[in-house]
Amino acid sequence: MLPANNNIKDMRVKMITLWINDKQYQAAEGQSVLQVALDNGIEIPHLCYHESLSSQGSCRLCLVEVTKGSKTIMTTSCTYPAMEGIKVQTDTLEIKKARRLVMELLLPLAPDAPKIKALASELGVTEPRLGPEPENDNCIKCGLCVRACDELVGAHAITFAGRGVARTVEPPYDEEAENCIGCGTCVQVCPTECIVMEDQGMERRIDKWKRTLKLKACKNCGRPFITFAEIDFMQTKAKNPPPEEWFDYCPDCR
Ligand code: FES
Description:
Elements: H1 5-10, E1 15-20, E2 23-28, H2 33-39, E3 63-68, E4 71-76, E5 87-89, H3 93-106, H4 114-122, H5 144-153, E6 159-161, E7 168-170, H6 185-189, E8 197-200, E9 203-206, E10 211-217, E11 224-227, H7 228-237
Parallel strand pairs: 1-5
Antiparallel strand pairs: 1-2, 3-4, 3-5, 6-7, 8-9, 9-10, 10-11
């Protein structure tokens, strides 16, 4: 697993030279090939990569060909580290074919997700390889929500369950995610919009995590804007927590 791009930037690293699509680039050793490509304006389709999170290579969409010495392999660019002298191709016929196959398998998992539909059409995929999943929830099992909750928030509220095609993301033991603070980070990173967070009156609901939380209203405009659980979490877990009064006002009124 490669660390998040942010961590690389903070580290003292040596610079290396690599080739992407026959052009020479400089990169920090330890960056992934995908990070180097994106930093240099080379688009590689990707769904499970986020620059602030570690990479796991779960969606398989960011495939590239890497030549190191006399050996060429096809691999996921988000998990392959940039190394001195490697030659990367991002758009060969073989890669396009492999990406289309990956997309044909992803499409039935999230046939209604706008981002998946747009990527499928970009890649020329019109038909899924298999029929729609019987219990379709638009989740492609990329794990971004789990990594965001673990690595960015530190709440560890959700997890993977099951294996293979039966793999799902759910609260532990499929019961209410008691560690969920209702911050919505999982909602923001999800590429298929399959996690719905709804505010109704003074309550926030995230049905996917079986969670309902009480909201606090802004003292100025009266708008409910943050859960009490998130305030409590920030005050107990943050290194330099804001003073209590800071949570009396919403971001707009603050
Ligand atoms: S972005 Fe690389 S495998 Fe998903």
